[in-house]
């Protein structure tokens, strides 16, 4: 348990209905009690955990606001310490004033992520579960939120722990077999050892291989809409943007100054980057279209290649198609409302010779959009992913699993080559320790600092 009592505004710093100051630590209840007076007259100090009181927030003799105080008693709280959540009206001034009053009565301002860090240090969460808290806050789509919630509830933790336990059991069996041959230890053959290790290796490999797909679910799908001028790229873009309009967002790029338009399609976030560029090309000569398309495609996870059904297929269309080989691409045959069924069929046949994922639609009317929506996860293989199952959520976790996998592969190799069981034991230790680092069971302070640096203050 830590000595200090920390406090911070836990809600966003924008005017809103309700704002909340969270206080955690040994003096959380007396600190809150010094600024909050319940109308019932029963002081916070006399209350049980999981109870709420209505009252007034004071700063010295001055009443700042009315509010609600929720008391949590250690260890039954988010941090595992005594916690009070003081809710006031969500005005920025009111929240800051409430925080100042709380800080003046024996608490210090929490550092970024300190509440969650304390939860981790007090054993309420594993390190990967703590990381899932950020994922949850940052989730921008249904899939991302589901994956984060599964992580928060321990799907990855359980899987890693499971593999770790079976590796530890193998190591123990190995040690017993080597060190106490005279005892009644179950026989350990190279084949049975290899089987056991191989089973764990496969489980880790499955996690490792799923990382990139998981990333598309969590971070969104970088999508390029390409095609010649006037085929309907902007119209398609507008159609997608209108779709679920309420959650269309402009997310400023984190690493570049480009503004990305993000749209939700079928529970996934499509990041349609550099939309200004998309519109600019309308003014450019046609030949630039292909060069520009090539550049856009290189940095994308998914390409929507748009073609105009009301025009006959041309050599340039075919050259655009050939650029796409080996990519996750959907050919959007647009303007079916302006083409005859025969023309549509002819286009479909030609395009289908190069690309297997073809949608015939009208970006203007929206007809056929549901087919596009259904095809996107399929082209990326996302429909085969259970986003509530164990999934690696970031580079740190991926690196841990990679190191464990490498050591396990070495162990399996050592068994196959008939190398001494001592050497196999060493490899097994090397395989277990990155897994303990992943869950935070055995991890350096530096890594812990790095994990919680990503959090905001108040979380
Ligand atoms: P871009 O240059 O590829 O971005 O093409 P635009 O989206 O600007 O569209 C070019 C023209 O095609 C505009 O006049 C659109 O209204 C029209 N258009 C786009 N989609 C459709 C469609 O599905 N059906 C028809 N009939 N016209 C369309």
Describe the fold and architecture.
This protein is of the alpha/beta class and 459 residues long. The protein is built from 17 helices and 14 strands. The strands form 2 sheets. A 7-stranded mixed sheet has the order 3-4-5-6-2-1-7, with helices on one face. The longest helix has 25 residues, at 155-179. The radius of gyration is 29 Å and the shape is flat. Mean pLDDT is 88; it is low at 244-259 and 274-288.
Question: Count of helices?
Answer: 17
**Unreliable runs:** 244-259, 274-288
Number of strands: 14
Helix- and strand-based class? alpha/beta
Strand order of the largest sheet: 3-4-5-6-2-1-7
Give the overall shape, derived from the CA principal axes.
Answer: flat
* Measured distance between first and last alpha carbons: 18 Å
Largest sheet: 7 strands, mixed
- Helical fraction equals 40-55%
Beta-strand portion reads: 15-25%
Radius of gyration: 29 Å
The hetero molecules present are: guanosine-5'-diphosphate
Mean pLDDT reading:
88
Question: Care to give the gist of this entry?
Answer:
With 459 residues, this protein is of the alpha/beta class.
What structural keywords apply?
alpha/beta, 7-stranded mixed β-sheet, binds guanosine-5'-diphosphate
Topology overview:
Blueprint: E1 6-9, E2 16-24, H1 28-35, E3 36-38, E4 51-59, E5 62-72, E6 83-90, H2 92-103, E7 108-109, H3 114-121, H4 127-138, H5 142-152, H6 155-179, H7 190-209, H8 211-219, E8 221-226, H9 233-242, E9 249-252, E10 259-265, E11 268-272, H10 275-280, H11 286-298, E12 302-308, H12 315-322, E13 329-334, H13 341-352, E14 358-360, H14 369-379, H15 395-416, H16 421-439, H17 445-453
Helix pairs in contact: 1-2, 4-5, 5-8, 6-7, 6-16, 7-15, 15-16
The structure holds guanosine-5'-diphosphate.
Guanosine-5'-diphosphate (GDP) is lined by residues 227, 229-235, 282, 334-335, 337-338, 362-364.
């Amino acid at each position: 348990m830590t000595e200090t009592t920390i406090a911070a505004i836990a809600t966003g710093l924008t005017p809103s209905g309700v704002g909340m100051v969270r206080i955690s630590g040994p003096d959380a209840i007396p600190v809150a009690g010094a600024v909050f007076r319940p109308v019932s007259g029963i002081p916070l100090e006399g209350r049980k955990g999981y109870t709420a009181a209505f009252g007034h927030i004071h700063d010295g003799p001055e009443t700042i606001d009315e509010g609600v105080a929720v008391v949590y008693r250690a260890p039954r709280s988010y941090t595992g310490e005594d916690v009070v959540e003081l809710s006031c009206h969500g005005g920025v001034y009111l929240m800051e004033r409430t925080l100042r009053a709380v800080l003046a009565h024996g608490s210090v301002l929490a550092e970024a992520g300190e509440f969650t860090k304390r939860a981790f240090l007090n054993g309420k969460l594993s390190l990967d579960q703590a990381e899932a808290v950020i994922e949850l806050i940052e989730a921008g789509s249904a899939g991302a939120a589901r994956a984060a919630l599964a992580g928060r509830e321990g799907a990855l933790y359980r899987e890693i722990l499971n593999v770790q336990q079976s590796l530890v059991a193998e190591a123990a069996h190995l040690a017993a077999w080597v060190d106490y041959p005279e005892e009644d230890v179950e026989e350990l053959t190279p084949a049975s050892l290899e089987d056991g290790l191989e089973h764990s290796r496969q489980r880790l490999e499955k996690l490792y291989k799923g990382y990139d797909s998981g990333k598309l679910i969590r971070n969104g799908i970088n999508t390029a809409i390409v095609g010649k001028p006037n085929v309907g790229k902007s119209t398609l873009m507008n159609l997608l943007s209108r779709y679920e309009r309420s959650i269309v967002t402009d997310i400023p790029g984190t690493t570049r100054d480009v503004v990305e338009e993000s749209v939700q399609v079928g529970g996934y976030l499509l990041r349609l980057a550099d939309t200004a560029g998309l519109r600019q090309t309308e003014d450019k000569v046609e030949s630039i279209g292909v060069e520009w398309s090539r550049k856009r495609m290189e940095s994308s996870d998914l390409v929507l290649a748009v073609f105009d059904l009301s025009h006959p297929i041309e050599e340039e269309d075919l050259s655009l198609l050939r650029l796409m080989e080996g990519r996750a691409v959907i050919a959007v045959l647009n303007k079916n409302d302006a083409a005859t069924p025969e023309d549509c069929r002819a286009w479909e046949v030609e395009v289908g010779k190069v690309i297997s994922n073809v949608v015939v639609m009208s970006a203007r009317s929206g007809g056929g959009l549901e087919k596009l929506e259904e095809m996107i996860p399929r082209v990326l293989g996302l429909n085969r992913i259970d986003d509530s199952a164990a999934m690696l959520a970031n580079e740190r976790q991926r690196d841990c699993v990679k190191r464990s996998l490498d050591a396990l592969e070495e162990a399996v190799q050592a068994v196959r080559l008939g190398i001494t069981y001592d050497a196999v034991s060493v490899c097994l230790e090397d395989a277990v320790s990155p897994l303990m680092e992943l869950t935070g069971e055995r991890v350096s302070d530096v890594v812990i600092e790095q994990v919680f640096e990503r959090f905001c203050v108040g979380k």
